[in-house]
Amino acid sequence: MSTHRPRAVVVGAGIAGLGAALRLHQAGWDALVVERAPARRSGGYAVAFAGPGYDAAERMGVLPELVERHITPDRMDYKRPDGRTRFSVPGSTVRALAGERALNILRGDIEDVLFTALSERTSGEAPNTVEIRFGTTVVGVEQDADGVDVTLEEGTVERADLLVGADGLHSATRRLVFGPEDDLRLDLNHMAGVFFLDELPDGVEPGVTASLTDTGRTLAIVSVGPDRAVAFFGYRTERPMDELAEGPQVALPRAYADMAWVAPAVLDQLSRAESVYFDTVSQMVMDSWSNGRVVLLGDAAWCVTLFAGYGSSLAVAGADALGAALERHPDDLPTALREWEAEIRPEAERKQKLGRQVKGLYAPADPFRLWLRDLPLRFAAYRPVSALLQRRLQLTS
Ligand SMILES: Cc1cc2nc3c(=O)[nH]c(=O)nc-3n(C[C@H](O)[C@H](O)[C@H](O)COP(=O)(O)OP(=O)(O)OC[C@H]3O[C@@H](n4cnc5c(N)ncnc54)[C@H](O)[C@@H]3O)c2cc1C
After folding, report:
1. What's the mean pLDDT when you consider all of the chain?
2. Distance CA 313, CA 295 (A)
3. Is there a contact between 220 and 269 (Cβ–Cβ < 8 Å)?
4. d(Cα 77, Cα 204) in Å, to the nearest integer?
5. Half-sphere exposure (CA, 13 Å, Cβ side) for 30?
6. Strand pairing of 277-284 and 185-197?
7. What is the share, in percent, of the chain residues with pLDDT greater than 70?
8. What is the pLDDT, as a whole number, of residue 1?
9. What's the whole-model pTM score?
10. Which of 252, 125, 241 is nearest to 188 (CA)?
């Protein structure tokens, strides 16, 4: 039995990166997490958290803290451009659709829970076995038979047994080790934009999620607590990377210029928003998620997209499965990574397929499709319809 304590460098302190650091620590690894942002991000958008990620969170011991952050809408209102409600789905139906082992939670709150768990479990350890370094990134990766050298932006070189690229859709780790993003990214021709509102627009009640979809675009206002609300924009485009380059302050006002309802008031808050999430809706298509001592995790590896509504869950499930595989094969990294990928890939590909299938539902291209989309939602309270929706959206397996 070797006395060497294995060490990982994890790039990215999102759900995948923090989940990996926590699970690797539980498996007896040291970890250095490097995060490009200068400090922890907060908030973000509300995500549905269920399935294998829910089970993994339970195994990792963080489920009670996640359950505490659960938020559920009192009602979902589907609006007309003039602000009148076309129809509503009661909160009880939304909860019944999601099922029992499912949470609705802010992305930032999942990160918060993982970060707190990491801090609590490593406090008092000397030397600290998990370090998180903000404001830096990876700029070089070199592997040999015994380890991987990770060069960070400031010039330091970190030696490790494993490099985990958990740096999201536009992963630098992936680019350095697996090649250019453009060769691996499948754009679903939509953009998503999200930011926190400093005030609820007139006509949107606290506790309610209200949305307006017209041809090719959706605006939703998601009330996520007594004084917190999120604006969500999702729209079709044939030129996603151009929109990304232009940025949210240019692209969103243009895409929603002629939308009525609360769109003008929400766009007015955009310019003073503290931070805006704005990205293409894209999947990663890769034959393998590891190369020697480098493994990709979460959106960096698969990115099932918001259309599948499962990325957070897969990120936590992937982190847990990675730790478990490393525990099973402490001295055989290739076997551990092979088994890990064989376990996660079928579910990730199933959800990627779902993402491609349901993409037309988010911002239907024509009024007929919009009517079709809304039809089952109007009747969602009836058991046969909710059972059908659960199957179609893979809310049950
Ligand atoms: C609008 C929207 C709604 C969604 N809804 C759901 C849902 O309902 N259910 C669900 O399960 N999932 C949902 N998702 C998906 C989910 O949010 C993601 O799949 C999940 O957060 C991925 O986590 P990640 O850690 O892999 O990536 P990210 O969250 O992108 O985290 C990557 C981290 O790496 C950092 N980073 C990036 N580049 C570098 C670099 N070069 N060096 C160092 N650090 C770097 C970033 O700052 C970030 O902290 C949704 C996504 C969106 C956009």
Report:
1. 90
2. 18
3. no
4. 9
5. 15
6. antiparallel
7. 90
8. 47
9. 0.92
10. 241
Specify the residue with its C-alpha closest to ligand 1, atom 38. 167
Name all residues whose Cβ lies below 6 A of ligand 1: 11-17, 34-37, 45, 47-49, 107, 137-138, 166-168, 172, 192, 194, 298-300, 306, 309-313, 315
Could you give the domains of the chain? 7-69+102-185+282-359 (3.50.50.60), 191-281+361-396 (3.30.9)
Residue 312 Cα to ligand 1 middle (Å): 7
Nearest CA to ligand 1 atom 3: 306
Query: Rounded distance, CA 372 to CA 3, Å?
Result: 62
With beta carbons less than 8 A apart as the criterion, state whether 195 and 228 touch.
no
- CB contact at 8 A, 157 and 201: no
Radius of gyration for the chain, computed over Cα atoms and rounded to the nearest angstrom:
21
Tokens representing residue 126 in the block: 């000397």
Distance CA(275)–CA(236), nearest Å, equals 22
> Rounded CA gap, 117 and 259, in Å?
43
pLDDT at 378 over 70: no
Alpha carbon of 303 to ligand 1 centroid (Å): 8
Question: Does the pLDDT at position 366 exceed 70?
Answer: no
* Residue to mutate, 32, 34, 35, ligand 1, most ligand atoms under 8 Å from C-beta: 35
Instruction: State which ligand 1 atom lies nearest to the alpha carbon of 171.
Output: 38
Cα pseudo-dihedral 88, 94, 96, 99, rounded to 10:
160
Which residue, by CA, sits nearest to atom 52 of ligand 1? 306
- How far is residue 395's CA from residue 321's CA, in Å, rounded to a whole number? 21
| 168 CA from centroid of ligand 1 (Å) | 6
CA 151 to ligand 1 center in whole angstroms: 23
Name the residue with the closest Cα to ligand 1, atom 8: 47
Amino acid, res. 41: R
Residues 8, 12, 13: CA angle, nearest 5 degrees: 95
> What residue's CA is closest to ligand 1, atom 4?
306
**CB count in 10 Å sphere of residue 119:** 12
The answer, yes or no, to whether the previous bond of 127 is cis (omega within 30 of 0) is: yes
Cα–ligand 1 centroid distance for 13 (angstroms): 9
> Do 260 and 219 contact (CB within 8 A), yes or no?
no
